[in-house]
Amino acid sequence: MHQSSCYFFTLFLIGQLVQLEAACTATGIPASGEVTWTESTVPNDHFKECYNLIKFTFSNSNNPTRIGSGSFQSTSLKSIEIPESLVEIGDYAFNGVTTLDTLQFQGVSKLTILGENSFEGTSIPVVTIPYGVVEIQPNTFKNSKLRTLNFYN
């Protein structure tokens, strides 16, 4: 299991105390920036601002069901493959991942919810929403490079 931790810097700037929050980093991200996930859910904010995360893969054996809110916000992922067992993508899950240009759904998707602002600011040009999705929250693709949105029927 990958653990998250945040660290802070405190410094004096022209006689004022200023606290700067540094990027949160999940322990266990190798230098390659690639992670294979073996848990059933990705916790809220788990990889948030882990700029060194460039590739994330779900293990075939864990049948993941949820990507938590803010889980991958402001990372450097290039693509994500959503396993068919996933039911929900939380609010802000991939928000600000400007490098994300490919979103694929595996098999017969069980996905039902796309959270608010979940893909805001991404570079994904085309998305095909799986058949079972019944809820697309506001601003899901706000400020993204989305040109084509297809609905599977």
Structure description:
By secondary structure, the chain is mostly beta strands. The protein has strands at residues 4-5, 8-13, 16-21, 25-26, 34-37, 41-42, 55-58, 66-67, 79-82, 88-89, 102-105, 113-114, 126-129, 135-136, 148-151. The chain is globular. Mean pLDDT is 85; it is low at 1-25.
As residue ranges, the low-confidence spans are 1-25
Class derived from helix and strand content: mainly beta
Specify Rg, calculated over alpha carbons.
Answer: 16 Å
Shape: globular
% residues in beta strands:
25-35%
Query: What's the number of helices?
Result: 0
- Count of individual beta strands: 15
Q: What's the average pLDDT?
A: 85
Main β-sheet description: 5 strands, parallel
Main sheet: strand order: 6-8-10-12-14
Please summarize what this structure is:
The protein has 153 residues and is mainly beta. The protein is built from no helices and 15 strands. It is globular, with a radius of gyration of 16 Å.
Descriptive keywords:
153 residues; mainly beta; 5-stranded parallel β-sheet; two-stranded antiparallel sheet; globular
Question: Could you outline the blueprint of secondary structure elements for this entry?
Answer:
Blueprint: E1 4-5, E2 8-13, E3 16-21, E4 25-26, E5 34-37, E6 41-42, E7 55-58, E8 66-67, E9 79-82, E10 88-89, E11 102-105, E12 113-114, E13 126-129, E14 135-136, E15 148-151
Parallel strand pairs: 5-7, 6-8, 8-10, 9-11, 10-12, 12-14, 13-15
Antiparallel strand pairs: 1-4, 2-3
